Amino acid sequence: MADRRRTREQWQSIVEGWPNSGLTQAQYCAQQGISVTSFHRWREQVRQHADPGDQETRQGEGGSVRWVPVELHEVPVPVAGPALTLVLANGLRLEVGADFEPRTLRRVLAVLQEPLAA
User: Fold this and answer.
1) Alpha helices in 1-118 (DSSP H)
2) Contact at 8 Å (CB) between 62 and 19?
3) Judging by beta carbons within 10 Å of its beta carbon (0-12, 13-18, 19+), is residue 29 exposed, middle or buried?
4) What span, in angstroms and rounded, lies between the C-alpha atoms of 35 and 26?
């Protein structure tokens, strides 16, 4: 491979172009006419000289990594076991969780009280 002098900006452009090239490092380096060793050395130098205040984009092993805002929401802790257990006269057992909806419970009880069709 030809030993050609490049500026820091040219090396930065080469290093930043690899992740989107779709090529392996070896293929990309061959295409650029550089050694893999030189690529690794310059990739490290580009990383070290990156603006530490730039939190938007960082160059990672496999490509560009973007920081995105994340919203955290409280998730209700599930209650161990049912909050209420109803045992009907016919032996049916109904377990109701702590977050039950009263309207739904009334509908279920109404259905359970209906006589069975013969």
Assistant:
1) 8-17, 25-32, 36-48, 102-113
2) yes
3) buried
4) 8
For residues 86-106, b (16+ Cβ closer than 10 Å) or e, as one string? eeeeeeeeeebeeeeeeeeee
pLDDT tens track for 25-37 = 999 999 999 999 9
b/e map 54-73, b = 16+ CB within 10 Å:
eeeeebeeeeeeeeeeeeee
How buried is 37 (Cβ within 10 angstroms: 0-12 exposed, 13-18 middle, 19+ buried)?
Answer: exposed
- The SS3 assignment for 28 reads helix
Q: Using an 8 Å Cβ cutoff, are 2 and 32 in contact?
A: no
The pTM score is 0.41
Tokens of 85: 């257990």
What residue has token string 């009280």? 113
- Using alpha carbons, list the distances in angstroms from residue 66 to 7, 21, 55, 56, 63: 27, 18, 8, 6, 10
Q: Locate 48 and state its tokens.
A: 């070290």
